[in-house]
Automatic annotation (TrEMBL):
InterPro entries: aa-tRNA-synt_IIb (IPR002314), aa-tRNA-synth_II (IPR006195), aa-tRNA-synth_II/BPL/LPL (IPR045864), Anticodon-bd (IPR004154), Anticodon-bd_dom_sf (IPR036621), Thr-tRNA-ligase_IIa (IPR002320), ThrRS_core (IPR033728). The keyword Secreted does not apply. This is Threonine--tRNA ligase. It comes from Nocardia yunnanensis. The keyword Transmembrane does not apply. One of its GO terms (molecular function) is ATP binding. The gene is thrS. It catalyses: tRNA(Thr) + L-threonine + ATP = L-threonyl-tRNA(Thr) + AMP + diphosphate + H(+). Keywords: Aminoacyl-tRNA synthetase, ATP-binding, Cytoplasm, Ligase, Metal-binding, Nucleotide-binding, Protein biosynthesis, Zinc. GO terms for biological process: threonyl-tRNA aminoacylation. The lineage of its organism: Bacteria, Bacillati, Actinomycetota, Actinomycetes, Mycobacteriales. Its EC number is 6.1.1.3.
């Protein structure tokens, strides 16, 4: 594996500046393309799975976090409040309280459940500067988050479906989980009290894990303050393990925010909140992608998907038209013009680009393209329109492989 901080700078993906501050990385154009593709993929997968997206502000009144329990259980990780005309506002440490309030803003019938609210939203953590590094420990986080409001007997299925979504996303991203961890409370931690709810939530998570057939280990002292969780652990280039994805069951916040739905009996009932994140923070997911692939991203994430290489200047014009054809077909394509050096040198320069389209005199004359794949494989010359369509399909399928024979 590679060090994502080193590669991030070398490949022009992201960087930091002391004037902006530590733990506050910014994204360069190529990094922004990868990140944007990842975020769009997640939104698409979530929409297909029945999630509905919302936006909520990164600030909230102190009172919001007092109700959620963050103020008393999580304040060490929060920024100090800002005074605004007698009111205190806080940079949010999580999206959950906002989503609970959004749920509460409308009345809900049992027929609407499970109601799945999702958001790729900003949140903030007041990490000390000593522990900050690259994208894995940051102060400003873009979280792939969702909250499923459901009945008690829907919880296990929803948690299992979330685990399935996580597995699907990992396959598309070409990253692997180190292990699944059932994170339980430990001695001395700050947790909301209600032992019977903790036991019930733990039982449901075990049910979801069993139904998914995934091997897992239990760990004490790793739970959220409001409930137990399933953590999907990944390992970085230095062998350090961290949590990327998570599924949590929460009886606490529905109580705190007095959430309810109208049941088939016409009475008010309390929903359960399942918190889940498919790829965790976008920053950490990007770090994992960079380290695992060394910059040779799966084609759907690559900043440039197709590089068109004219053999000589005589093919520069045809190459430019071909790149335009690719862009019209939705692919990210560029030309590496003949003036840029020998064909071999230009191929080396573009070695991370998954599809390299070579156009020589014979190809130009017949409207063909010879394709080199990033892994060194060469495909025979084929009509340009056919190859562009095929590459478009492969990218769109989010398959890990570059070519299907
Ligand atoms: Zn949450």
């Amino acid at each position: 594996m590679y060090d994502h901080r080193k590669l991030g700078r070398e490949l022009g993906l992201f960087d930091t500046d002391p004037l902006i501050g530590s733990g506050l990385p910014y994204w360069l154009p190529d990094g922004a393309i990868v990140r944007h593709s990842l975020e769009e993929y997640i939104r698409t997968v979530e929409r297909r799975a029945g999630y509905r997206h919302v936006y909520s502000p990164v600030l909230g009144k102190r009172e919001l976090y007092e109700i959620s329990g963050h103020w008393s259980h999580y304040s060490d990780d929060m920024y100090p409040p800002m005074d605004l005309g007698g009111e205190q506002v806080v940079l949010r440490p999580s999206l959950c309280p906002h989503h609970a309030v959004i749920y509460r803003s409308r009345s809900h019938s049992y027929r609407e459940l499970p109601l799945r609210l999702a958001e790729l939203g900003g949140m903030y953590r007041s990490e000390l500067s000593g522990v900050l590094g690259g994208l894995t420990r940051v102060r400003c986080i873009q979280l792939n988050d969702a909250h499923i409001f459901c009945t008690l007997d829907q919880v296990a299925d929803e948690a299992a479906a979330a685990l399935e979504l996580i597995a699907t996303a990992y396959r598309a991203m070409g990253i692997s989980a180190t292990r699944y961890r059932l994170s339980l409370p430990g001695p001395g931690g700050k947790y909301v009290a209600a032992p019977e709810k903790w036991q019930r939530a733990t039982k449901l998570l075990i049910e979801a894990l069993d139904c998914s057939g995934l091997p897992y280990e239990s760990a004490e002292g790793e739970a959220a303050f409001y409930g137990p969780k399933i953590d999907v652990q990944v390992t970085d280039h230095a062998g350090r393990e961290s949590t990327l994805s998570t599924v949590q069951i929460d009886f606490h916040q529905p109580e705190q925010f007095d959430l309810h739905y109208i049941g088939a009996d016409g009475d008010k009932h309390r929903p359960v909140m399942v918190h889940r994140s498919i790829i965790g923070s976008v920053e950490r997911a990007m770090a994992q992608l960079i380290e695992q692939h060394g910059g040779a991203f799966p084609a759907w994430l690559a900043p440039i998907q197709v590089i068109v290489l004219p053999v000589s200047e005589a093919e520069d014009g045809v190459a430019a038209e071909l790149a335009e054809h690719c862009r019209t077909a939705g692919l990210r394509a560029e030309v590496s013009a003949a003036a840029g050096g020998s064909l071999g040198a230009r191929i080396r320069e573009n070695r991370l680009v998954p599809y390299q389209f070579v156009v020589g005199p014979a190809e130009a004359a017949h409207g063909d393209v010879s394709v080199r794949l990033r892994d060194g494989r060469r495909l025979p010359a084929q009509p340009a329109a056919q190859i562009v369509r095929r590459v478009g399909e492969l990218v769109e399928s989010h398959a890990g492989r570059l070519w299907a024979d």
